[in-house]
Amino acid sequence: MLKQCLSSATRLASRHISREQILNKLEHVLGSRNVISDPVDTAPFNVDWKGMHRTRSAGEENRNEQSIVVTPRGTEETVALMRLCHQYRIPVCSQGGNTGLVGGSVPMTSNELIVSFSKMNQIVWVDEESSVVSVQSGCILQHLDNTINSVGLCVPLDLAAKGLCQIGGNVATNAGGVRLFKYGSLRENVLGMEVVTADGSLLDLGKSVRKDNTGLSLKQLFIGSEGTLGLIMNVNILCPVKPTSRSVLLLELSSFANVVKALRLSRTSLGGHLSAFELIDKDALTVVVEHFGYKVPLDMKEQFYVLVEVSGNGDEIGATDRFMGDVLRGRLAVNGVAGSDESQCEHIWAIRENITQSLASTGANYKFDISLPLPKYYKLAEHIRSKWKDRVKHIVAYGHVADGNIHLNIVDHQMNPVNQREISSDIYKFAIQNNGSISAEHGIGREKVDYMSQIHSPPVLELMKSVKQTLDPLMLLNRGKVLNLL
Ligand code: FAD
Ligand code: 2HG
Ligand code: ZN
Predict the structure, then answer these.
(1) Would you place residue 238 in the very low, low, confident or very high pLDDT band (cuts 50, 70, 90)?
(2) Domain range 2-118, its CATH number among 3.30.43.10, 3.40.47.10, 3.20.20.70, 1.20.1280.260
(3) Which residues lie with the beta carbon below 6 Å from any ligand 2 atom?
(4) Nearest C-alpha to atom 8 of ligand 2 is from which residue?
(5) What CATH code is assigned to 123-238?
(6) Direct distance between the N- and C-terminal alpha carbons of the chain, in angstroms, rounded to an integer
(7) Residues 306/277, Cβ–Cβ less than 8 Å
(8) Residue 228 burial (CB count, 10 A)
(9) Whole-structure pTM over 0.90, yes or no?
(10) I need a surface site. Which of 176, 230, 364, 374 has the fewest CB within 10 A?
(11) Starting at the edge strand that comes first in sequence, how are the strands of the sheet with 69-70 ordered?
């Protein structure tokens, strides 16, 4: 019955092989339990987290045709799978937790196969002495963190999607999150990985040691490549020692200049104990508080709110109290509260982490993930408000201000592609003119492909294309994403 649903005469790329034949071959290589073709079961894989990007049907007879999903159980099966895909020119879209925010994890058309890594979810080993873990790409970030917490380590990456996103997806997007300024990016913390390329070759890239100067660091090509160069299998990650205590403060400030001064003071007075410094503007705070009914023990009269987390082994408590005192006495903040126990700290974090969810429930979201030098950081929000505030529902700004990363979100009354295009163009122009980046952490995916030629010079783009052509000459991997070469 399932096969009948999908038995359109659709022909994939070249090699004249029908969808039914492909299903048979996939089942032969992976076993029928690891091939999903029932449209009810494949549906969640064929739409992104935002509900904005869906797989378009490539079937002439079946307008609702979706991509087949396969779930290899390990590296060997993935090698065999990619050999088959290479032989029959079957295009592939890698999918981790499907929490990406730029449409990269969902195929453009249904003739692409979705490779889901959900069954490759094992923690292979933990080396407590060297603080290194080896993990399969489908392991959920939260699961890895919880597991290694029990031996006193933590993952150097933390983001609100941690309960869904996978390590492979994190590495493929070079995800940032709230700890980047303290622990560094995955580019610094991924020591080695295994990758399966488009023709089914297995690359062993780097080991589990910090120092390795043996030629080009090819693993870096795959970090942030968004599934366009290879399928990430195992990853070795350097993990810091987990702090044993923490305090979380929420400050209310009247100007962005004071946010920057408070950031500077926090760096000098808290040093290595500072573990998060997140900005939430009043518009973002209002949406999340109203949506979830959170209580905020502050007046909420000012425009700026900052979550400061300080962590250590109990030795940070004095410095935290002094910092709070200095910030209030120096009138950098007009008010501030400190979570007095773990549940209050969690409550303050929930306000920050649930902004994205609250926005998604409030209207059509246009998301922007911009890096800017700090003097221009909040000017972007002001610039966009001056032009758009009366035409859309909300304009909210929040983000990892310590990294110069602002998440500007525009909530429209309903999806309006003309508004989306014009707002994108205004925001990207501002970012480019002010030496910023149009993607601080979420990537290019399919949403920002058209802007690549504005942000990179022709020689740089040519070099990127030649890398893609070398690794994937048949253009099988993540078509239409990052570099649209078709
Ligand atoms: P997916 O969404 O499944 O895939 C993302 C990309 O990686 C796709 O291009 C896909 O093809 C590719 N890919 C996935 N797995 C592999 C693999 N094994 N091999 C090769 N390619 C692969 N991002 C941040 O950077 N910082 C944040 O703070 C942050 N917060 C978020 C909060 C929320 C509520 C949500 C919904 C998203 C957030 N994101 C954030 C975006 C997203 O969670 C990250 O991009 C995350 O790293 C994606 O992981 P994933 O497993 O869901 O990957
Ligand atoms: C975050 O920092 C994420 O919360 C998501 O990167 C940002 O929703 C967004 O725009
Ligand atoms: Zn972010």
Answers:
(1) very high
(2) 3.30.43.10
(3) 160, 356, 367, 399, 407, 409, 441
(4) 356
(5) 3.30.465.10
(6) 34
(7) yes
(8) 25
(9) yes
(10) 374
(11) 35-36, 69-70, 113-116, 92-95
